[in-house]
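Notes from hallway chat w/ T.B., transcribed later so I don't forget. T.B. wanted the structure written out for a chain they're using in a teaching module, and asked if we could keep both sequence and structure tokens in one place. Agreed to drop them here.
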Amino acid sequence: MRKSILALTLVLAQSCAVGPSYKRPVVAPETPQVTIRTPDSVQAKLDTVVHLRDSLLRTPEKPSLALRSGTGEDVAWLNLLQDTVLVQLVRHAVIQNRDVVLATARVREARALAGAAKGPLFPQLYANGAASTNQVVFGSLGTQTYDALRVTGDMQWEIDFWGGIRRSVQAANFDAAAQKEGERAVVLTVVSDVAAAYVDLRALDDELAISERTLESRRETLRIAQRRFSQGLISELDVRQFEAEVAGPAAAVAAYTRLVSQKENQLRVLLGEGPGVIPRGLPLAETVRGLEVPDSLPSSLVSQRPDVMKADRELAAATARIGVATANRLPQFLVTGSYGTQATNTADLFRTTTEIYLLQGGISIPLFTGGRLVNEQRAAQARADQSRAAYEQTVLVALREVGDALVGVRTSRDQAAALDLQVAALMRARALADMRYQAGLSSYLDLLDAERALFASELAQAQTRQLQLVSVVQLYKALGGSWTEDAN
């Protein structure tokens, strides 16, 4: 028996697996680098204008908080944002977010199934026992009745001559790898959602502060107008106009207060917790000022995205299952064996005279199955074609998202620089309009126009800072969560 099993094992070891082996398809030509550098002409103009603004307003320059990536080491994207509170929130979310917990459980399930798929590669051994009362007829001898006790060790083994079982194991391993990439995708989504929501929250904080500051400024302007009205310097119409202008920022304060609370609740859900307050870190302006994204990034980073890797592993699993379906159409080689003892009473069990054994080799050739096996093979091929199309589509979408994110980073940076200049100019214009109004050199309309323009510009500035940071988060997500090609 041992010699027979050894011979079959040697044959099995030298056999090859039927069906195609997986090879990753080429979707699009590889581009060596993608750049997010602002065009020189635009940057030069912005630098000139900003330099002029700084010289006029004498604004001191604050040191940059960004980490340099010139060492070639992995630069974690959270380090680019330089907010320790955000880092803690992300770490908390990765541990407690329910979607991450669910994805982790799916990975454990897939790995267990991959382990179970290896079982048929080995002989299946069972211990069996039976007790029976039997009555048989032996012709002229008449009816015979006897008791039988049977204890055996039984073995079943399907020789994987065509590699169908091995292909099944490959498919299960690829499924487990796909689930692991799915877990990475969930973590990446949660991290980017937490970061984006936190940036949104800090932007709402700024917009609320701007609204409160504007409200207080207009209330002060109204008090001045009421005092001038009591002195007979202006008309009641001017006072009523200033009273009406107070309502705008007052309504904005109420709206932004509501939005801040709702955004905090959204973040708490991402953290796996109930509604509550979210701690704050660096101001949005300081985070933007310290932001420095590498000027060029290899486009091959897209291949490390978890959704791309997941689609790749799913295609590999579907390809392996073509081999499984192909092997099912070929002859199956079976080995069965049994060894034990059988007696009429327990005292005689395990004696030499009651020893029984069986070793049997067999072959099963599918001759007619009503088209089931051939159609299963066709279905496996069709599923592989579907997985290939899904993989190619995933890569194309990934390339588009990277391109969109790069444009977002570049244009939001240009937009932020322009709005910084506009806000500085309008702050100066508002101050001049206030001085001229108090000196009686201009009408209340000039002051109102200056205040309205400054309020709108400051809100746009806060929103652009938010857009700039969210664009960086989107670029991080589009590249699969890392700035370096070999990072996992």
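Follow-up for T.B.: The radius of gyration is 37 Å. Might be a good example for the class.
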